[in-house]
Amino acid sequence: MMAHLKERFGFFFNNRWLVFVVAMWIQTFAGIGYLFGSISPIIKSSLNYNQKQIARLGVAKDLGDSVGFLAGTLCEILPLWAALLVGAIQNFIGYGWVWLIVTGRTLPLPLWAMCILIFVGTNGETYFNTAALVSCVQNFPKSRGPVVGILKGFAGLGGAILTQIYAVIHSPDHASLIFMIAVGPAMVIIALMFIIRPVGGHRQVRPSDGLSFSFIYSICLLLASYLMGVMLVEDLIDVSHNVVIIFTAILFILLIIPIVIPISLSFTQEPRVPAEEALLLSESQKQDPENSEHDDGHEIIFSEVEEEKPKEVDLLPALERQKRIAQLQVKLAQAAAEGAVRIKRRRGPHRGEDFTLMQALKKADFWLMFFSLLLGSGSGLTVIDNLGQMSQSLGSNNTHVFVSLISIWNFLGRIGGGYFSEIIVRDNAYPRHAAMAVAQVIMAFGHFFFAMGWPGAMYIGTLLVGLGYGAHWAIVPAAASELFGLKNFGALYNFLTLANPAGSLVFSGLIASSIYDMEAEKQAQQHHDGQLNLASVLTNFLNMDEPLKCEGAICFFLTSLIMSGLCIIAAVLSMILVYRTKAVYAQLYGRSRT
User: Fold this and answer.
1) 158 contacts 28 by C-beta, under 8 angstroms
2) d(Cα 424, Cα 422) in Å, to the nearest integer?
3) Measured in Å, how far apart are the chain's first and last C-alpha atoms?
4) Chain center to CA of 145
5) Nearest CA to 135 among 66, 68, 78?
6) For residue 501, how many C-alpha atoms fall within 13 Å in the half-sphere facing its CB?
7) String of DSSP letters for 308-369
8) Under a CB-based contact definition with an 8 Å cutoff, are residues 147 and 137 in contact?
9) What digits encode the pLDDT tens for the residues 177-233?
10) pTM of this structure
């Protein structure tokens, strides 16, 4: 009996669904950057910063959230638990030191040093993110879209979850949120870090996997709906602290429920015998060209087919295209065997195979993916970073409502982006970036609503931009792993995430802030011209260092129109990538449909 129970626990701790569920929990703390808008007021007031100084801290936060070269490298050379530990230590030191400074427990540091601390603390997220994605994409090679979408979704929803947990603390000292950000992730990561690892997930494929994903999707939608309802109730009604505790307890239950999947698979179902797993692996390799070992001859033939096939073959239906390519492969193989043709050996990998980062950087497809992401996600991050000023300029003081709303829409965008892009890939053998183009067009409409400033524009704009922005982070990692392989996925993914701070720096740090200040100066000058008296001059002189405020839709009118145009350009780049990679996706996924 004890031996049987021990065996079952062994299956449980090596179950890929356990790794996935734990990765979901860890990803909750990979979104602490979204809480910067909640901690920046206490930093601003306690250190007497102005808005420009806070904006610089925000850029440091965005850089820390996205510069993951070290995380990607360490995840390739160290065990994933070690990389997670490094991230937890960075997070603890960075935000812990900020908390000590804000609460007056240690001497204040200059602004550049505070930027470094924010960068180091937020950069810990990249280790959580990379370790979770690398382990789960390897464990679920045939379900990359749903896996990436769900994991990135929890990162996007992390801000709303942590805000609700903070509400339980009910501390009048707002600096305690910084303390929670410093200590909470470190405790959770250290407790769970040994579970995050590849466990041979390709050998654990079961017929019930589709049902398991449906269950996870249901929990995700329920979680998002619940958080939105709780947020609205707490905003509209003055609820007691006991009610807040009950709300948070229900939240924890929803977060824990997915653990029933690995428990059910490990303790209620018979494990597969080795022979059955071997047979399953063999079948999987037959159907999935990415996970099977090709001999040199087959790779060479595939290389020649790519060069020799007529262009019109790519325009044929998937089934007919596969037949034509197979016929061409057979002819080339026969001709090569008879010495009629000489097959060239390739000098590097083809799309769909394993690339190093340096090899990928030489490919036009990689840069199309990067710049499409830069324009799309950069415009979305501009809205997230300026949501407070945007809502205030349109006459709303409930900034935290829109911060929570865009966090939830961001979450649903990531879930939906992974789900619908997987349908495009699996059912139609069509490039995943087609879903990306749709998301970018949706974002263009969202920016247009912001520009118009119509009644309800903040709600509609946050909905559309949040959904589109979130979809980017479900689609791009999955597409990168398909086109450039899994072997160096960590390095490739972390290079692509540089598009986020690059877009934020240009669109938010230069375009949005410059236009906002220009409009604010115009309004201040008009106000000044209308009140030319000694008292107003003295007031302006004494408050000349205070940041100017802009009111009305004009504040972000031009910025939003520019962002809308950039999203259209991003959609065009995505469709160019779709056109260029149709044959690759037909080769990767068309075979499983025939």
Assistant:
1) yes
2) 5
3) 46
4) 12
5) 78
6) 22
7) HS-GGGGGS-HHHHHHHHHHHHHHHHHHHHTTSS-PPPPSSPPTTS---HHHHTT-HHHHHH
8) yes
9) 889 889 988 999 999 999 998 888 777 778 888 899 999 989 988 988 898 888 788
10) 0.74
